[in-house]
Design goal:
This protein has helices at 12-24, 44-47, 65-74, 82-93, 106-128, 153-163, 201-213, 221-227, 242-258, 266-272, 274-279, 290-298, 332-337, 344-355, 388-405, 415-422, 428-431, 450-455, 459-479, and strands at residues 2-6, 32-36, 132-136, 139-145, 169-172, 177-180, 185-188, 323-327, 363-367, 374-377, 380-383, 409-413, 436-437, 443-447. By secondary structure, it is α/β, with parallel strands linked by helices. The protein is elongated, with a radius of gyration of 28 Å. The structure holds iron/sulfur cluster (SF4).
Amino acid sequence: MRVETLAHEIDIDGWRAAARRLRVAAVAPEHARFRVAGSGQGGLLDQIEETPVEAAAAPAFAVPKAFLDLAGEVILHRSADRFDLMYRLLWRLKDEPNLMRITTDRDVADALERAKNVSRASHKMKAFVRFRRIEDQAGEAWVAWFEPAHRVLEKTAGFFVRRFTTMRWSILTPDGSAMWDGESLAFGPPATRDMAPDGDAVEDYWKTYYASTFNPARLKTKTMQGEMPKRYWKNLPEASLIPELTALSAVRTTTMVEAAPTPVNARLARAVAPDARVSGSVDDVVAATLPELDRAIQGCRRCPLWRDATQGVCGEGPRQAKLMVVGEQPGDQEDLAGKPFVGPAGQVFNAALEDAGIDRADVYVTNAVKHFKHEPRGKRRLHKTPNAGEVTACRWWLDQERRLVKPKVILALGGTAGLGVLGRKPAVTRERGQPIALEDGATGLITVHPSYLLRLPDEAGRVRERAAFVEDLKAVRRLL
Ligand code: SF4
């Protein structure tokens, strides 16, 4: 028996090197075992004598990238035989080059299932890590204790770096710890529960948030435990509310059905039917008020953009506004403030509104997409344009804003906003300023996004385009 010792539990490089050695030496899977140094997993393996390999060396061969990617995931699984499984697959690939495409094969199916479990554990970690605030010598810092189902700390830490770039934080787990100091990410040794602080004001925030977004009409205990497995409850402040909220659900469901809003189209009509409400998910909330809509957006998972954003940014303005202005998406400052149009483009927009004789306090301003899409560049988060799928997914919420506010005129700022309002990408230059009859009775208009004015390179161009933008806003005012 040939026993290969790996440096640690997720030693993918060590496993690759050892597997390559074994494969080149033609050691069959039944004669090879892997163990992790210092894991105490030796047991029987320690009693097995390591024998030199006498078989003839096999020629080197290439493996598909998909296999290596899969190995990288499976090795994060907690099962003790994960290294052996992947070596068995590697061995078989030599004679079965298409093996990885045969998803009904027992070994392939097993590996895919383990990779799925790892992916799910990573997803749960993103959803259920709860930071507690502490003060240390350098000031404010945040610490979280988390027990992932599989060894996904390293795999998932990048998400928290992107999400909480400007904070100093640590995530402690039984497998290891991750520390971010605002500039670099470091990994450290395993931790214990008592090394993390207990409850603070943030805990109350989570409880309030959960209580406000808990939808009794959709209470399905099994589904809820699938989404928020019980193993995570002990570290979730809001989980302490579940028994009470569950008990109250019948009462609250009746209240909600009575308060069901009037639909504006067939899709909403289906969704507000009581049976549809009961079977829907949090993404299918049909809000009766703007605050309820805001809360629902915070829990939305209709597209992936929620993952890297600080929060969803719902529209803002009077419920009875005659004018609704739709931008593209929240920017960096809007993402942090939770309010639309507060960044540089918002200031350009406010000044132009004033020049056009429109009071911003009378306008409902929102965006086609409610979460900030961006990519990190050093400490900065650079705007990325939402794609058509994301805009379409988010129309669910824009449609509801339109239903609740019932504006007379809807002004779309730029092509992405136009897609959200019209359901098709408009030709902004050609359609600019032309009234468009919308299905809910409002009049639609398209103009450029104020950020376009900020990007113009020369002063003369900026003056000319700003004047045209103000003229568009004056045309809007005449329609109100
Ligand atoms: Fe949901 Fe819109 Fe956010 Fe996507 S961008 S997660 S659809 S609220």
